[in-house]
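LAB NOTEBOOK - FOLDING QUEUE
OPERATOR: T.R.
BATCH SIZE: 2
PURPOSE: Compare the predicted structure-token outputs for two unrelated chains run back to back under identical settings.
PRIORITY: normal
REVIEWER: second-year student, initials M.K.

ITEM 1
FIELD SEQUENCE / FIELD STRUCTURE:
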Amino acid sequence: MQKNKWSRKFDWVKTTTDSGTTTDSGTTLYIQQDRLEKYSQDRFIPVDSIYFKFNKYLDGVCFSYINNLNNIYKRDLLTGDGYSIFNMYNEYDVVDRVTKNWLIVDIASNVNVNLNQQYVKIDGVTLLPGHLVLLFNQDSEFENDVYIVNNQSFLENGNFLSDNTKSDKFVCNVKLGTNADKQFYLVNNGFEFPTIFEPKYFIEGKSIILKNKIKYDLFSNSSKIIFTDYDFAKKQYEDTYTLFDSVLLNSTIIDVRLKYHHDEYIIRIGSGINQVTGLSVPDISGTSLGTIIPFGTLDFIEHDYIQIKMYSGSTEVLNMKSFVKTGLTSTLIIEEVIPVNVLRDLKYCTYDIRNLNLATNWDDVLNSLLLDNTTYSDFYDYYAETGSTSIAFYPKQSKFNKYFDYAGLYFSIDGTNYYNFLSNTSYLRYTLYDILNEINPTIFTSTFTGITNSYVLTDITGTTYIDNKSYSSRIKISSNISGLTSIFTPYTYVEVSSTDITPTPQKTLIYSVDDYEMVIEKPRQWCDPSDFQNPSITSIANIDGLQNISNLLQEVYINVETIDPTYEWYIEKSDNERKYICKAYGELLTHNESFRDNVTGILYENENNEFILKLYDLENDTNLEFTTVEIMFLGADKKTRLPVPYKRIVSNANVMRAIGKTTTTETEETYWNVLDGTWTSGVTYDPYYISSSETSEVYDFGFNNVLSPPNEPPTLYNTIDGNLMGN
């Protein structure tokens, strides 16, 4: 369990005072050269840079990749992104992401080819050894693939689609023949792309990058952008503390308690100073635990923050602060280690101990709350009149941690009722279950399922304990069941059961999955150092249910091990592991159709530290302003061409009257409405004046080419060769 948010680093420097600075000339003095470091609960990511980066998605300019302009928010079988697009931070991110499996082929043929015959020509092109040929219209869909011409003029499968990593977003750019300069895309079969031994379909498409202006009101009560990573959600507003209300407590003299997630800090009422003379050299056998000092009978408890001052005569020779690890009847164990030679030199000193968690009366409590060294005092302030029994806490911004989770800080004066800073803004009190339940309480109930596979693996043929003595231990599980990769997902949590050990089942993390094997983390309750068992695992079950997963992700966000029985399963994770977990659940959510139909989008950071915003239901979300302002064509050379702005030229008198213009011809900037396939300019036209028989509009893409108004999405201007491109 995390006991405090402070850490002191000490260098012990031994010196001797001179007669000019103290009445005790020649007294040994130990100077602590220390620096106080704050522990950041949100150390997970560099907040200064990340705030700017992912807020560019929600309020700024972003780029997206599509293959046609029909309707970019329907499921794109060519890019394989489910029912969404990825909005990237800049066009170069888009290029890097979508061109990883681009291939330049010599020929693309839509005529069935007998693979048992030799060919000299295909599609009018003389074949040479090494030529690459795309066959995309074979009688057998299994044969649709890319082939290499061998020295005997047979076509051999080029093995370019041997696995999903190679087939993902696979594109062929054609050099020769009737399909020269065209691009053919492999179509996915659901949420992944087929491989060499599966049916495959190729269709022609265009690589288009859209520049979009996007603005989203995240702080309305009906906001529908979802995060799996709570850090993202809570850092959407730079001055977060201003969005919370204060907390008012009324009491007589009672302890004041502060709780942050699972960590608790107490200011106690009692006697604040203890003084004993004649310090003897302590038994240092327990130094690994901290410094053990026989202080006599003192009133200290675990987690107390104390100040120790030691004196030689009237000269102060040591002044330090530390936390109490254990307070016993006659022994005090503190967390900082005092070197043995220092303790030996201080053998005959006297000392005072001040309990910084201790107050003598209510007014002293109020004063103690403002001590610079009080845990969390950088995140709140208070107001109270002298002698009053009422105290109001209110949040303030810390210079150490700008994005503190103010909703997670609680106050109590009776040890039973805890109160925290409240806000009406959903994303400041964000948990996955709560926010989805607000969006649709009928569908997103606590038991909403379908996020993970509801599967229990009982066919387990063997377990190997890679290391059975620590929390970082891992277990390899073997099974006769094939296809474990489609059942279990790396970096998600499962419940593991065994008849050999209790308690069971236990929550733990999956690290990797192969076809017949998987590696999991050894459950925390199986890591008791007094009992190095290797229990036989009887079952592994996925954890489903919205509230269950929401609680899991909340623990990942807090990332603190605790003795609380409710959360005693959690093992602290590294920063990267936490990112992988959030990413894994983000991907799983996108596979659930009910989730997609009820939210506007989901934002998360993937394992490559890319920020991904997947967009779904844009038509029904009034918080979103989304406008496409430019298009770019991505060529076979993986380079984008000059951006083409949208413009409309109107030359019809009735249309001009409808929009309040007196001239017969007017040029206005306009946008292609990607949602319903129409042109808009922010002007509402009277349908009477713009019936199909009366409208006369043309479209200019910035290159002095006048095009007819399209029935389908607009024709694009190819800046490579000066020709017009169809869609």
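ITEM 2
FIELD SEQUENCE / FIELD STRUCTURE:
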Amino acid sequence: MRGVSLGIAAILFAGLAIGALDERLRLPEVVHLLGLCLFVYSVGLSSGPGFLDTLRRHGARNGALVTMALVAAAVVAWLGGRLLGVDAGSAAGLFAGGVTNTPALAAVLELLRGHGTLAGEAVQSAPVVAYSVSYPLGVVIPILAIALVPRFLRGEVPNDARTSHSWPAASRERAGSGGLIVGTMQVTRDDAIGISLEALMREAGGRVQPGRVRRVDGKVELATNGTVLALGDLVTAVGEARDVARLVDRLGERSTEMINLDRRELDVRRIFVSNARVAGHSLRDLDLIQQYGAIVTAIRRGDADWIPDGNTVLQLGDRVRVLTRRENLPAISAFLGDSYRAVSEFDVLSFAFGIVVGIGVGLIPFPLPGGLTVRLGLAGGPLVVAMFLGALGRTGPFVWGIPYGVSLTLRELGLLLFFAGIGTRSGYASWAALHEPSTLGIMAVGAAVSLASAATLLMAGRYLFKVPEGVLEGMIAGVHTQPAALSAALSQRLDDTPNVGYAAVFPLATVLKLIFAQLITRM
């Protein structure tokens, strides 16, 4: 362990400290409400495409795991609140802090603000106190759980990066992104001759993107799904080491020749997608191989890298690895945009329109059994609408997505405003509450909340659903919506599988936390 940083959440504690100095040192309420909308809407736009993709493939499994983990956390928070004798709002704050989820806390505060009681300020400060006390433990416990996974789980799925084929370090570097490599293989198996490359990749399994083929006569051409190979051909493919090794086994043997370094005919360029007319369209719709004789072999979005297919939708700010003939590079660069300046801009009109629609959706009451009603509120409405619009990509001339760098900036700005707002408004009451003897009990319950969710997910994921170890570690971080935990998971593995688990559960976990936090507040 190399220490734990609270990150931007430290602003909450700074705001609490400032607010504790004087009851009048508080920011206007609109500050944290604006920050909340910016944060959840930006998160939703970036999570939407990945959420729908994982929902189609493992939706039932992921939904069951997330629900089980958060139900366990909610029950512990509610029972702990009853044992401590605190109000329902404080119990909901314990839940939000234990699972380190700011939108859930915001939903609780919004619900309490709508009650309009005479003790409104005290009532709204109590959840913030519980949240601030339990939050640090909610950061540390998932990290500890992830660190202990390899030590306590037996018979785990082998590390995805381990393979019988040893790839040189240059292969990884030449891929230009994350854990992807460029592998060269030679066709030596008779049963690989005369079969399309698409069929061969399907038989091999895994996910790779072929690059180029050098025929026996020395001719170099693009390797497409319809390419038919002959004995002695050399083929390059981009993918994770494990998946490239599977294709090697299907075709024949690995070659030490790195034909991808020969750029006399085919060349590679990494291009930024900055053209709004391109964003929101799938690679199949763009049909780059027909228009420009080009194929996209890898995509980098933020810090994540993956192999695309025809259904992959490009977003503003994507960095795509394009393989084509040298003379076609200027044209394909102009088509995709390749402008740093354009990537830093976004459509303010569509962004603002989406937030307004999200606020409207958040005001709609949804009836639940027992006469209860739940509103998604400012924390949930913009999130759900943004996830839908992010998955949609575009509507006619309107591009709903925003560049990844802009999204990160808006998220940080939103969290800054939210934490500063609620911190200064709750600091005075928080300082008074910290002198209460119940503070240690609140910390204990907060730790139990975080432990309950992590342990439930770990046990159910491993022994009930047989989730691979790396994916399960990412799920623990995703259920707690905790980037620090994700970083810890990635640091102890040789592959990027924790990213898969994190992206699979993050959006659903955020929505369910909003619902459970409001249910606890009403009980």
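REVIEWER COMMENT (ITEM 2): The first helix runs from residue 10 to 21.
FOLLOW-UP: none requested
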